[in-house]
Design brief:
Number of strands: 19
Radius of gyration: 66 Å
Helix content: 40-55%
Largest sheet: 7 strands, mixed
Distance between the termini: 218 Å
Structural class: alpha+beta
Strand content: 5-15%
Shape: elongated
Oligomer: single chain
Length: 678
């Protein structure tokens, strides 16, 4: 059946209205969800903001127990929280736990004793911003140690007055790193010559709380105890220790390291004065750690300086009259604390103990022993070498002295042998000497006879007399020169080095040997030989040349070849002057030639065998040489002796003046005979 149009329109309208209402509902639900999400976000942001609010993390050192530390430092934390407007989280630790917390970076500020502050400053960069001191006292004179003994014990009759009197007794302390509970007393003992760390006193470390130290002394477990200054007075007030049961050994009379030896001065009526056995040092340090911002450190410092006086030590009975008020002041000078730790060689100065000489020796004794052994061996070796050097030096010195003595003796012997050689030559030249002197003597005799004849005949004129007298004088000078030349050759004297002309030397040798026989010796000189010079002693060189020429004459006499002339040659060989003497005798055998210059070896029946040996020594002393060689048969045979000498610069003015040659004498002799009519 077909549907009516009215119903169709109505259904369409109803559906449209329902859809529009549904859209409105969805829109309102979406808005509500958005508002709810915004509210949740605002709450989360508020929670995050509250969670991100800064918290000041403060660590405090506990020296007695945790309850005492909280009672002591909780008021300070509450005050800072109020002054800064920030939450302050207080953490109480002992020495080891507090350093561990600083190392982990979980703290911003710390309140600790001076000894641990110095350690935290050196290891972790802590910076003190305030020092706790008495209300009216010096902040540098607050903390000390009290060394206690039983008042009714071993010291009942004579209680000790100095720490050094306790040497060798049993010692009780809370811990080795406790500043007021051990280190200050150990430093005071060390200044009096008692080294606790090297076993001067047996130790008993009780640990915290510090009341255990007093209990150990009272119970007899230890004879001596170390507690912080003012704790004994607090324990006596609290009844922990009977009043007067423990006696505090007084401090030394003089202050040490800039600290005060006396106790904390009384600053108000009724205030209790604490007894101390050591000088007093700066009090508790409030230090900022690297995690704290600089601005936060400044805010904390201002808050501490504005804090009213607070109790430093309080009795358990909360007796207000016994409270000691304290205030935070500017940082005190902690050099005295550094000095104590440096003396004890404990952290942060423990490296001093490790680098001390005894510690190094203990740690490296093996290497030290090895090095010492090497040094000892080296020293012994050096000593041995020094002894050997001195002994060898003495031997060398003795050898040099002996060598010099032998050299002088050899020179003397050489000179004596040379003198003997010259005398031997003079003996052989006696005939020549008689011949040379015969000419001037005969001339003088002829002149005298001629003068007598002319006087007898009356023919002596003044001119003839003057001429005859002049010739007689010249002949006398001639005889004197011959005798002087022979005497110069014969006498002993010190050799003199001067320029010598070889040609003049050869002519003088010929004058002494020829004896008027001009054909016996022939002189051959190279071109320019008159300008040559050698540096030497003329008489020694003349002796060598005469020896060579005389040997040649002896050879000619022995072999019967006196009719042949001996050749004397002046030339150069290898840049040296060569004076060569050649004879025509039989050649020597190789064996005889090898022994030619050997001393005392001779081929003459009456020879000494020293002439050639001495001549060779003279040649070598002048920087030259003397050589012998045979002449080939096709060249005429015989022997050739060569004297080699270094050439020197020509100096004609200083050359040796020759003896007048035989030709000049003959010329004067013939002139004199003619003038005398002979």
């Amino acid at each position: 059946m077909p549907r009516h149009p009215f119903f169709s329109i109505t259904a369409h309208w109803l559906i449209s209205a329902a859809m529009q209402a549904l859209r409105h509902v969805v829109c309102w639900v979406g808005k509500a969800l958005v508002l709810w999400q915004c509210a949740l976000g605002m709450q989360a942001q508020a929670a995050d903001h509250e969670a991100m609010a800064p918290v000041v993390r403060l660590g405090a050192l506990s020296v007695v127990d945790e309850a005492d530390a909280l009672r002591r430092w909780q008021p300070l934390a509450q005050y800072l929280q109020t002054a800064l407007g920030l939450p302050v989280a207080l953490q109480v630790h002992d020495l080891a736990a507090l350093e561990h917390a600083v190392a982990q970076g979980t703290l911003d500020f710390v309140v600790t004793n001076p000894g641990q502050y110095v350690l935290l400053e050196a290891r972790y960069g802590a910076t003190r911003i305030a020092t706790l001191s008495a209300a009216q006292g010096n902040p540098a004179h607050v903390v000390g140690s009290a060394v206690v003994v039983r008042a009714q014990g071993d010291f009942a009759q004579a209680l000790p007055t100095a720490l050094e009197q306790l040497r060798g007794l049993r010692l009780a302390a809370v811990a080795q790193d406790a500043f007021g509970g051990y280190q200050l007393a150990a430093a005071a003992w060390l200044r009096q010559g008692v080294d606790l760390q090297n076993g001067a006193m047996p130790h008993l470390f009780t640990g915290y709380p510090m009341q255990r130290v007093a209990q150990a002394v009272l119970s007899g477990q230890a004879d001596v105890g170390i507690v912080r200054t003012c704790l004994l007075e607090q324990w006596e007030r609290d009844g922990v220790v009977p009043l007067g049961a423990l006696y505090v050994v007084p401090a030394a009379a003089s202050a040490q390291e800039g600290a005060a030896p006396d106790a904390v001065p009384e600053t108000a009526p009724g205030m209790h004065v604490c007894r101390s056995s050591t000088p007093l040092y700066p009090g508790w340090a409030f230090a900022a750690l690297p995690a704290a911002a600089p601005e936060r450190s400044r805010q904390v410092l201002l808050a501490l300086l504005n804090q009213p006086a607070q109790p430093v030590a309080r009795a358990a009975a909360m007796d207000a009259e016994l409270e000691v008020p304290g205030v935070w002041s500017v940082p005190a000078d902690y050099h005295a604390v550094h000095d104590v730790l440096r003396q004890l060689q404990v952290p942060p100065y423990a490296f001093l103990r490790d680098t001390s000489m005894p510690a190094l020796l203990r740690r490296h004794w093996g290497w030290v022993a090895a090095v010492l052994g090497v040094l000892l061996v080296g020293a012994a070796y050096l000593l041995h070498v020094e002894v050997l050097v001195k002994r060898r030096t003495a031997q060398l010195t003795h050898s040099l002295q002996e060598r010099e003595r032998l050299a002088r003796q050899n020179a003397q012997h050489q000179e004596a042998l040379g003198h003997l050689s010259r005398l031997s030559i003079l003996g052989e030249l006696s005939a020549m000497l008689a011949h040379e002197l015969n000419h001037p003597l005969a001339t003088i005799s002829n002149y005298a006879a001629g003068l007598r004849r002319r006087v007898a005949q009356g023919q002596l004129t003044p001119q003839a007399l003057e001429q005859a007298l002049e010739d007689i004088a010249q002949e006398s000078e001639r005889a004197a020169r011959v005798i002087g030349s022979v005497r110069a050759l014969a006498r002993k004297r010190v050799p003199e080095r001067r320029p010598v002309a070889p040609l003049v030397l050869a002519q003088q040798a010929l004058d002494l040997l020829r004896g008027g026989q001009h054909t016996e010796i022939q002189l051959h000189s190279a071109c320019g030989a008159e300008h040559w010079r050698v540096q030497g002693d003329a008489q020694q060189l003349l002796q060598v040349l005469l020896n060579l020429l005389q040997n040649a004459r002896d050879v000619h006499r022995q072999c019967g070849c006196e009719g042949q002339a001996i050749e004397l040659e002046i030339a150069t060989e290898d840049g040296q002057l060569a004076l060569a003497v050649r004879d025509h005798g039989p050649p020597l055998s190789p064996e005889a030639l090898a022994q030619l210059f050997t001393p005392f070896h001779t081929t003459k029946p009456d020879g000494l065998g020293l002439g050639l040996s001495i001549s060779r020594g003279i040649a070598e002393a002048h920087g030259g040489a003397l050589r012998a060689c045979t002449v080939a048969a096709q060249d005429g045979g015989g022997m050739r002796m060569v004297l080699l000498l270094p050439l020197a610069d020509a100096d004609p003015a200083s050359a040796m003046t020759p003896v007048l040659t035989t030709l000049a004498y003959e010329r004067r002799y013939l002139t004199a005979l003619h003038s005398c009519g002979g």
